[in-house]
Design goal:
This protein is 44% helix and 13% strand. The protein has 374 residues and is of the alpha/beta class. Strands 1, 2, 3, 4, 5 and 13 form a six-stranded mixed sheet that branches. Strand 1, helix 2 and strand 2 form a beta-alpha-beta unit. The protein is globular, with a radius of gyration of 25 Å.
Length: 374
Amino acid sequence: MRTARHYKRVVATFVFLVASLAVALISTAEVRAQSGWQKQWEATLAAAEKEGRLEIAGPPGESFRKAIVDAFTKAYPKIKVELLGGSGGSKVARILRERQAGVFAWDLYISGPTSALAGFKPVGAFEPLKPALILPEVREDKNWIGGFDSGWADTEKKLFYAFGGTLAGDNIYVNRDFVSADPIKSARDLLDPKWRGKIVIQDPRVEGKGLTDILVMSLAYGEDFVRKLLGEQKLAVTRDRRQLVEWVVRGRYPIAIGLNEYVLVLFQGKGAGQNIGAVVDPKTIIYWASGSSGIGLFNRAPHPNAAKVYVNWLLSRNGQVEWVETLTNSRRTDVPPAEPKSAMKPGGVYHNVQAEDMIPQRRRIQQLAEEQLR
């Protein structure tokens, strides 16, 4: 009996020691991992503050400037940010000309993925982004709708990251002061002859929301539907986002495709267009568009450490809280959406219509629009 009890005590002691050693090793590994990223972050931040500057090409508008520049400099006052705001096409063309001339003036590109990948990827202008992500919270799957990797816009999942966006199903806006709520329940209803000459669209022949909305309609209803809509319904076409919203507010064209939500909110904040709202089309709610919520890191950047600090800040919870002030929803699960109705839901499966694999289809729709809008 003594021998058996003694043996059991020895075994129990051995098991306890092994378990304690395992816990100690795990704890040590966790501490080393934690201290590793913290040391890297502190070194990167110190180098960034020494650089003291950051050059970003981004979207236009005061709300974006506040999110991109003001919020970051408030968090990191030792790093001054310069922003080149403008449309995707104009920014890409300018930066490509500069790089061809040997001028590498920009650190980061914040905008939609389509023009960025079409313009910069073929010439190898982007640096892989993932190695720049230092903060653990940035790459944790639980923090992102669909997991972290579902935000990559390029096919290789390494160059351009879409951190926010909205459901692309809200592609039809109607002024209910002029159009009854019942007749238009989906895109198909736009083919009714009574709406001929009463629809305005942001020009789908160029990159923008008009093209995105028509692309979504083609994915849901086919190209023949798009051909009829553009060719038979006498759509008014504009590239001016504010003009489009103003026309809808005034009822000149009470139905809109490609309407910019941010501009509409500006009007509604002044008491105009209160009864303008989106048509929820059940066939288009599986698609989402990242809008201007994408980021890429230029190679040969003049301020590489400041760029790394910025990327980590922007993709952190704190950075995304600032970003949603632009009225663009974040993909982070721990950041309340700016527009709940157009927000993707955790656990849902969605398709980004601005990702690189959609570029051929976008070009096809542009060609179709060229043929029909003459």
